[in-house]
Structures are given as structure tokens and as C-alpha cells.
Amino acid sequence: MTKPATHLFRLARWGITLARRRALVGIEEDPNAPAPVKTLAKIARLATFTSKKGERDYAGAFRAIGPAAIKLGQSLATRPDLVGEEAAHNLLQLQDNLPPVDFALIRESIESSFGQPLEALFSEIDPDPVGAASIAQVHKGVTTDGRKVAIKVLRPGIREKFAKDIQTYEWAAAHVEAMGGEAQRLRPRLTIANFKRWTNSELDLRREAASASELAEDMRGVDGYRIPAIDWDRTNGRVMTVEWVDGIKISRRDELIAAGHDLEQLSQRLVISFLTQAISAGFFHADMHQGNLFVQDDGTIVAIDFGIMGRIDRRARQWLAEILYGLTTGNYKRVAEIHFEAQYVPSYHSVGEFATALRAVGEPMRGKPVKELSVGQMLDGLFAITRDFDMQTQPHLLLLQKTMVMVEGIATQLNPDINMWDTAAPYVRSWIRDELGPEAAVAERLKEDAQTFLRLPDLIRRIEDRFPPKGGAPEAPPLPEVKLMGRIGDKDASRQSGGWLGYFVAGLVGAGAVWGASVAGLI
Questions:
Q1: Is 287 assigned a catalytic role?
Q2: How far is CA 460 from CA 308, 463, 470, in A?
Q3: In 48-200, at which residue ranges do the beta strands (DSSP E only) sit?
Q4: CB 60 within 8 A of CB 21
């Protein structure tokens, strides 16, 4: 168990780093921030002799703190309600790039994790990484059977570093949430809990490989979108080996045009592939930034890096699809009703008033391209009304919001005139018809009833185990209730009756009474 003094020391060190880059000024000026937090932010700024005036470099501050902070900063970029719009926008620029680890350490990590020399696994490997991030770095290699692969290796000691930092995040979040008010509504503890779950998945490369395999199965029927194959024989918790991908990074617009790709078609394919993952499969690639998407010669989009994945259950997907469709068609009443059905908004509020607030957010955006109004702006608008309607943060939707912003940004870069609503509406409409239409409702009811019927035999067996049939012996007659003087082991009762001496004396008196009555002919 980490001592409070250790947490305070870490927080003080991080606070000084944040204060020097004016990353805490927003907290000082936020009227909803807890007073103790505002005071600490001001003390940190004054301790570094930093004025309020000047650029606020949130991304630079998180980068300076370390790998875990980089990941946390990227997560907070989706939370303008928690960190403010200015900070969230700045954190979107936070790139997960760090200086590479020396190849000698990478070699040692690979060999120790597999228990065999590097040459037994790979015939060659480039010592210069093709990418170095906060958690791992990637090297190009060739397997002993001649296949080109990408080899992802965790940075040595990174698991221990993350574990220490996350413990302090949890400690700080618990204390902030205990202050109540706005801090409690934003649920920082649950936010950190989700962050911990995401990073734990990233720190086990076997789970990342499994995620890639699962997503490949889900997207098998989608044309123009592919997941590279996993080399399971060369994959473990610290090393993951996947098929090498040759293609153009989706961020290189000029190269895509020179190669003859249809950018409008690519942008639509990207949006539809995301909707297929999020709404149809309920399992989506949640780190779809420009460096993780490539375009092959035939126009196929290939995704890499599956450390962060999102998952949504079927009921939440139904709500999500209806919300998206309601916003695209202007049916704000239905969108409001879904928020109440999902219990995102407390029942003591008015559905009509919430629908009017949603209209104020959605109506200015309908029918306009992303270059004028965006999904990101829509999310900002939705966050702005959450406070008025006492909506608690829904951490299970944070990854979805983050990915929506990423997909929108890439789609806009490919095609500045794309309308996210018009692109998404046909797909969402079709999914709603298939999943929520009359035929789907009947099919779902039949499925549920059949499953219930199949469980009946097991239910009957459990009832019989609990209430077995009567045996051959006759049923015992009811016995009168007798109040006991005390029970062995019951200290209070023993004291009241004089303890074991009391039991002994009472026994003698009772025996004497019975003997006397028999002598007198009474019994």
C-alpha cells in the first residue's frame, strides 16, 4: 500500500510541472472547481513564479510528466466537461511519441520473454524502430520462414511505472470526488477506473493480439477494411508480432491523390467501418488516429495498434443508434426520451425541456458540412447542458466519444465537404430497421422465450433439490415451543441464570421437587 506522503510528493511534482506551463490556470478560474483544488492550483503556480498571462501548454505539460500522463492526457481530451474546452482542444495535439529504447534492451526483452535467442525467431530485425510510443516501440523484421512482420515490444519497466502513477491518480480522484458537488457529478474515480482498465489492456500484448483477432472476425464481411494477421507463435505478454503492412498513411493526403485514390470514397468508407464496429459489433478500435490507419494500393484501409478497444452492450447500442438517428432527422423528442429511458437524465427533469435543450445543440448543425460544424462541437454542446440536467458522466461512452472525434477529424481531412450526418444516416436507419423493427422485435421475443423454456428443466431440478419429496417415515407432529433458560456459550444468558452453578442448582431443585412429589403420591 502506497503511503499518502508518497502520493502527495508525486502530485506536488506533477503540479509544479503543470503550473510552469500554465496548465492549472483553468482550474483557478473555473467557478465549479472545488475550493481546495483551486487553492492548491494557485499555490503551485505562485511557487513557480508563473503568471496567469501567456500560453497554456497542456499537451507539453503532460508530455513532460511521463508516459502514464501522456495516456491520461489523451483520455482527458474527450472530457471538455472535466478539463474545459480549451484544455481538451489542446490535449488533442498530444502525440504519443518518445525517444526509442536502446536496441540491446529490446533484444534482451524479446529473448527473456521467449526463453530463446532472437535468431531462433527472426532471421533479421531492424535495430532502428519504425515507431516509439509511451508504452512500446515497433521494429520491422523477417521471420525465420521469410515473412515480413512488425514486432511490437513493451518498454522495459513500463508496467511498474504505470502501476505506481495510476495508484496516485486513484488516490487523488477519490479525494476530489469526496469533496462533493460538481466533482462528485463528474465521477473522477470511475474515469480513472476506466483509464486503468484501458491501460492494463495495452500493457498485455496478448490481449491486444486477441482484440485484433476478434475485430478481424467482426469486420470479415466489410469490403475495403482489413486487420493484419497475428503471428501467435511469436506473441506473448511483452512481444506481439503481426503481418507487415505496406501502404500510405491516411494522413498523407497528397500521396493518396498521387496514387489515384478517391478521397471522398475513402472518407465514407472510414465512417461506415467505424459505425459497423461501434453499432453492429459493439466492439471498436478506439485509437483510430492518423498514424494507425494505412491505405493499400487497392484502396483498402488497414488498421493497426489495437491496445485501446471499446465495447458497448446491445441495449446501449440501440440507444446510441436511436440518438444518432434522432439527431440526424431532428427528432429531438425521441432523443430526449432515450436519455430518460437510459437513466442518463434523472426522472425529476422534464423530457420536453431536455428536448428543447437538445434542439438548441443539434439544429444549427443539421445539413452543414463538417468544415462548418462538427461532431466534436456537438459533443461540446451536449456537455454544456449536462450540468443543467444533473447528468452524471457515463464513462462507458467516453471511448466512443473520443473515437468519434478522431474519425471525424480524419474524414474531414480527406474530404472537407463531408457531412457526417448524411453519411451516417443511411447506415443507422438500416440498422435500426433490422434491429428495432417489428420483425426484429418478434424474433428477439421468440429467442428470449425459447431460452426461458430451455431453462425450465434445470429450474425444476433446483427446486426439487431445495424441497425434496417426503421419505417413508411419517411426518413428525408439531412440538410445543419451550423457552430455554440459557444456551451454552451465550454469555449474557449464562450471567442472567448464574452461569454453570445456576444450571447445577436448578437441576438439583428440579430433581428434588420431582422426588418429593412422588413420595407424596402426587405423581
A1: yes
A2: 44, 5, 17
A3: 122-125, 131-132, 136-143, 148-154
A4: yes
What is the DSSP secondary structure assignment for residue 489, as one 8-state letter?
T
CA atoms within 13 A on the CB side of 329: 14
Q: How far apart are CA 338 and CA 318, in angstroms?
A: 10
Residue 497, pLDDT > 50, answer no
DSSP characters for 284-347?
Answer: EES---GGGEEE-TTS-EEE---SSEEE--HHHHHHHHHHHHHHHHT-HHHHHHHHHHTTSS-T
Other beta carbons within 10 Å of 490: 12
Using an 8 Å Cβ cutoff, are 313 and 337 in contact?
no
Residue at 334: amino acid letter:
R
Could you tell me if 201 and 208 are in contact, meaning their C-beta atoms sit under 8 angstroms apart?
Answer: yes
| Phi then psi dihedrals of residue 512, to 5 deg | -65, -40
- What the block records as the C-alpha cell of 83 is 478539463
d(CA 89, CA 302): 27
C-alpha of 85 from chain center: 21
Range of lowest pLDDT (114-128, 215-229, 319-333)? 319-333
Residue type, 373: L
Nearest to 274 by CA among 206, 337, 324, 204: 324
CA–CA gap between residue 125 and residue 140 (Å, rounded): 6
Interstrand relation of 148-154 and 239-243 (parallel, antiparallel or unpaired)? antiparallel
φ, ψ of residue 98 in degrees (nearest 5): -135, 160
Length of the chain: 523
Q: Which three cell numbers stand for residue 212?
A: 485484433
pLDDT in tens, 435-472: 665 555 566 667 777 888 888 888 888 888 888 777 65
The three-class DSSP label of residue 152 is: strand
Of 66-70, 118-122, 208-212, 499-503, least confident by mean pLDDT is 499-503
Reported pTM: 0.69
**Options 287, 305, 380, 388, the catalytic residue:** 287
